[in-house]
Amino acid sequence: MTSRRDALALALGGMALLAGCGGQRAERRTDRIQLWVAPNAAEESFWKVAVAKWNAAKLGLPVSFTTIPTAGNSEDTVLSALVAGTEPDLCTNIFSGFAMQLAALRQVADLASMPGYGPLLERRRMRTIMPGWTRGEQVVALPIYSSPTLIWWRADLLERHGLSAPPVTYDDVYRFCERYGVRQSRYGMQVLAGRDWRDRWFDFISFYYAASNGQPYLADNHALYDNAAGAQAAGFIERMFRQGWTAPDFDAEEPLVSGLAAGAVRGPWDIERFADIYPDTLARIAVGPMIAPVRSAGPGSTFSDSKGVVIFRSSHVQREAFAFLSWVLGEEALNLLWLQRTGLSPARDDLLTNPAFADYYRGNPLARAYADHVATARPPALSEHTIDIQKIMSARLVEPLMLGTTAPAAALADAVARTDRMLEVQG
Amino acid sequence: MTMRWSREAVIGAALASAYLLFTAVFWAYPFFWLAKLSVTQWRFFDEPVFTGARNLLLTVQDPQFLQALWNVVRFLGFYLPIAFGGALIVAFGLQHVGRGKAFVALCFLLSNVSSGVALSLVFAKVFSSTGPLNAMLFELAGVRVPWTNDPTLALLAIALVVAWKFVGYYGLILYSGLLAIPKEIYDAARLDHAGPWTRLMRITLPMMNPQLMMVLTFAILVSFGLFTEPFIITGGGPSDSTSTPQMMIYETAFRRLQPSHAAMMSILVALVTYALVQLARRLFERKVVLA
Q1: Which of B257, B258, B260, B261 to mutate to test the interface with A (most CBs of A within 10 A)?
Q2: Are B58 and B265 in contact (CB under 8 A)?
């Protein structure tokens, strides 16, 4: 027979087990600012120096930082942390669409209302860049860097086929492809970046911005790309596939290395990757602008792959966190350090006119080509429905053009109509 | 009057409580939370608000979700013949292996325990339009096959990858069925001059009905649970032709941040899966009785 004492012991054991399942919201600290940064060595090394300088100079509340504790993507980790209540005060590596989602969920602070916001824009020369990050009067994320998409060409292959400079217009590309392309075995250019919704930034949206001189493809919950620029970009994609001048995918290898394709859209992050893995190929790369129907007078428009920083609404030290942010982003020396450590252009429009950066760009011609386009590159449309918008763009526009099942005009009309319908349903 | 438990009863309850607790925490609680979510509007940080049939209407009117369900049916059209054909070959082949039968069986199981992510990454490169398979076909026949870029071929490519992973496992299940068939039945059939085809159709396959049904049920469950392979190899394209209900649920919950809508999707997928399994049982399940 069992005594009451045994039953009590069992109950206590059970309660001890269940105690581990309880919620555990982190205590919000007010004595220091907690910062999460992108999980890569280059950015981590920058923040290590910046945070150490801030803390040593005692310019405000001390900062402690760690990389975003992620094994997959930052968005999932940030979301999990918000649900668990373990989010920091500040978090970098946030793309504008995710920032808008967080804003819709009322999880991030409006940075435009912070004291010192206006002076920061002046100090960092961000006035021309911020419209792409502002909705109404609200700014929910501040861009740290701006990475324009440009086209890398194998200079040796261009030269061998009669071109002394990278193609600039669609006609230039067509002429080169006629000379270089061999059906089903060698292609003039990689046109589609891949299958993921993110890949549309590096093909159709880049082509659209270049053709439209940076006009938005979405505004007031309506898709706008069923216009002349959209038709030109779609027509280019369609013609490249129909002529066999590009392949549906280049998943098996890096096409620029073998010359499987002579040109491909690449970002500044690829410079370091190529320097590490394909240094011989990198030495033969010439960077050209995003191709457009006609040559533009100055640097043409293209897409800007930018990541920003947010301050969470749950933070008890929002103003102190913004003061730290203003200091990091506003200091020219730290902007230069960022550039040196990461190779990514700070989101400011004076990169090529400011003497502070002159030496860096003199020694880095590839990075200079990107810096040249920072002021004219446009971020993705500010929408919390970025994923759906770009999935529709993939399934209804880009893939039908690739397969040759729909004419460009019909594909554009279908994609835009479906996007509008989706936005209407989602509200 | 106080109730006193026997020591055996307490030990029994303590042992059972571990399972009951596990079930309550990891099955019952998520199940009721899912049911609650499916009829509410909740976006992670607010309180769920009852919205009745709104999620249901949204889901059944969502063309992408309906397309994803239809893709499962299309997938089964490719997967079932490949999986059954392959599994039967494995099962009949194992019958003729003399030495090292366990090793051969283990080899077939290796693909089943391989990482889905790793093998999907490998197959994505193999099936690429500029990949090794197409390079070989181009060398031999002067053609490149759009394995992952044609809506029909893309599904076939995924069916091949999934079948490669499961054929060994299914084959072992069928092999166990083959072993259970008494030899005397075949001897009697031979005396009646039954040829190999007749023996296969009249004895072997009917006697293996329980194992075949088991494989069919597993295949249906695998098809509705498909995620990793299409997510990595085709991303659901081209033109949503390889998107699956699990991909829709994941993206709706964790990309669009609409967990309530995703909860309704998962309930509908579970119901459709159950209905299809029941339909398959009605159509093909037979009682095997050895008198």
Answers
A1: B257
A2: no
